[in-house]
Amino acid sequence: VTSYLQDIAPDLCDRVELYDKRIPLFDKFNIEEEINNMLSKRVPLPNGGSLVIEQTEALVSIDVNGGHGMFGHGSSKEKAILDVNLAAAKQIARELRLRDIGGIIVVDFIDMADDSNKRLVYEEVKKAVERDRSMVKVSELSRHGLMEITRKRVRPSVTFMISEPCTCCQGTGRVEALETSFSKIEQEISRLLAMMEQKADPENPKSWPRFILRVDHHMCNYLTSGKRTRLAVLSSSLKAWILLKVARGFTRGAFEVIPYTDDKASENQHQVAISLLRSAEARANKSGKKEDLY
C-alpha cells in the first residue's frame, strides 16, 4: 500500500497503519455490510424512518418515509416530521457518496406545514453535501415537499457497476403474480386446442388431447397444492391431459406447452392416467357422489 501511495499520493503515506488483529479488517469496520446496503432499495434512518431509493438511467428518486414516531397532532407531529426529514437529509448526502449517484436526484420529503422547517431541511442538505468531492447543487423545497439535487456524473453509479438486472423481473422490481401466469397457461392450452383439426369427445377421456406443461418450481407448487389442485381443475375444464414437469433454468412465470408425443413411453403413461381416472370414477359411483375428471 505504501509503495502504491508513493506513486499517486505521497502525502498520504504517513496515514498507513498495519492492522494485525485476528478479526478480519472488513468485518471490523462492517465493509461487507455497507456493500450489501448499497444494493438495497430501503435504507433505515436512526429515528425509525427510512429512505426508498429507486435508480434509473435517467434520474434517481428518493422517497422519505416516516416511522412509528410520526403519530401525533399539531406541533408535536410537525416536530416529528422535521426530525425525520433532518435525519434523511444527512443520510441522503451519505448515500449519494457511497453509491456514487450522479445526474438528477429528486427527493420527496415528508410534507411540512411550516416554511421555516422547510428552510431548515434545505440548509441541512446543503451542509451535508459539502463533504462531497463531486459538484453538487441543491434546490429549495417546493410547496409539495420535493427537492431537486444535481450531482456531477463521473461514471455509472456503484449499483449499476456491481449488479445486473434481475432475470425474473427485468429490473422492474416486481414479478408476475402466479394467478396471472396461471391464466396465461390456460389461454395457451385453449389456443392449442382451438387450432387442432380433430376435436376430442368430451365424454371420452381416451380421446382427450395430451400436453406437456413445463413450468418453474413456484408454479409447480401453485398448481399441485391442496386437495383439489388447480392442475386437476384445469385438466377437467379443458378436457385435456396435462403432464406437469419442472424445468430447470426457468425463471418465475416462464412456461412451455407442447403436444404430448405418441411414443411407447407416452402411451404407457397415458394408460396409467386412464386407469387412475377409472379408479376415481369407480370410487365416485360407489359413494354416489359426482367426481370431476383429473
UniProtKB/TrEMBL annotation:
Q: Which UniProt keywords apply?
A: Endonuclease, Hydrolase, Magnesium, Metal-binding, Nuclease, RNA-binding
Q: Name one GO molecular function term.
A: endonuclease activity
**Residue ranges of every copy of the RNA-binding protein AU-1/Ribonuclease E/G domain listed in the record:** 2-154
Q: Which InterPro entries match?
A: RNA-bd_AU-1/RNase_E/G (IPR019307), RNase_E/G (IPR004659)
Top-rank taxon, per record: Eukaryota
Q: Name one GO biological process term.
A: RNA processing
Cofactor(s) required, per the database record: Mg(2+)
Q: What does this protein do?
A: Involved in intercistronic processing of primary transcripts from chloroplast operons. The endonucleolytic activity of the enzyme depends on the number of phosphates at the 5' end, is inhibited by structured RNA, and preferentially cleaves A/U-rich sequences.
Membership in a protein family: Belongs to the RNase E/G family.
Could you identify this protein by its name?
A: RNA-binding protein AU-1/Ribonuclease E/G domain-containing protein
User: Which organism's genome codes for this protein?
Assistant: Citrus sinensis (Sweet orange)
In the record, what lineage is assigned to the organism producing the protein?
Answer: Eukaryota, Viridiplantae, Streptophyta, Embryophyta, Tracheophyta
